[in-house]
Amino acid sequence: MDHLRIRLRVYLIIFFAVIILGTTGFMIAENLSPGDAFYFCIVTVATVGYGDIHPATQTGKFLAMLLIIVGVGTFLGVIANATEIMLSKRERIVRMKKLTMIIGTFFSEVGTHLLTLFSDYDPDLWQIRQDLIITGEWTGNDFIQVNAKLQQYDYGIDVAKADLPHLANFLSAKRDFLLRLLENPSLLEHESFTELLHAVFHLAEELDARTDLHTLPDTDQAHLGQDIDRTYRLLVDHWLDYMHYMKDHYPYLFSLAMRTNPFDRQASPIVQ
Predict the structure, then answer these.
(1) Confidence band (pLDDT; 50, 70, 90) for 205?
(2) What pLDDT does residue 184 have?
(3) How would residue 222 be classed by pLDDT, with cut points 50, 70 and 90?
(4) Could you read off the pLDDT of 93-114 as tens digits, one per residue?
């Protein structure tokens, strides 16, 4: 999209330069007023014909031919690029809707439950829990402020609190679902969300590779803790972005997500 905008700006600059130079040239060559010269320039570039007036001098005719060669191409370039930008914007909106559906499905099936589990494993959650109680009164600035605070938060999991067998069973049951998400071509345009999926999938593989999760040495528990920390941090970031997007575009989805907030101990899907 950015390269299209840059290309459009270049065409616009050239187009306006052609119009200014053409108008000035007709004023001099044909001894026309600025209004008539501008008219001559526009009808030449647009190739609509002059009607009952036309260039009378050789210089004016040469200038008209030059404008047709240079100006018409530039004018068509402006129209083509503006149309391409509009179509690209429309396609991007459609892709974003599809991607939002995918991310929403992920949180419904996997993400929200993982956030509930991981937040229970986080001994320092009290530092940010209240900041993550999102309400309908939140503005874009509220989301920005909370996101900035989360960048400073030291995500940490107490593996001793973690029910690793339950986590392993849950992720194992969602393996096929996660695989289908990874195969979705729409995710190619959202690298950070793909990174989250890879983190979740890697955690599932790590847990599945161990035959007994009850008697792990401290070193292995620390290793699993790092995998959970990575997934936890990515989950929170994407969950906050998803909530922000839903609030702006899908109020009804935001309402349910707000009532099932994994960080809110009083959360209930029942509308009170």
Answers:
(1) very high
(2) 78
(3) very high
(4) 667 777 778 888 899 999 999 9
Indicate left, alpha or beta for 59 from its phi (over 0: left) and psi (-120 to 50: alpha): alpha
Cβ contacts of 227 within 8 Å, gap of 6 or more: 199, 202, 203, 206
Q: Could you give the C-alpha distances from 195 to 36, 205, 255, 257, in angstroms and in order?
A: 61, 15, 27, 23
CA angle 115, 119, 123 (to 5 degrees): 165
Q: What angle do CA 241, 105, 202 make, to 5 degrees?
A: 80
Residues 37, 59: Cα–Cα separation, whole Å:
14
Distance CA(271)–CA(259), nearest Å, equals: 8
Distance from C-alpha of 9 to C-alpha of 71, rounded to nearest angstrom: 15
Determine the number of helices (DSSP H) and then strands (DSSP E) in the chain.
10, 0
> 55: pLDDT confidence band, cut at 50, 70 and 90?
low
Alpha-carbon distance of 204 to 86, in angstroms, equals 42
Domains of the chain: 2-89 (1.10.287.70), 94-259 (no CATH)
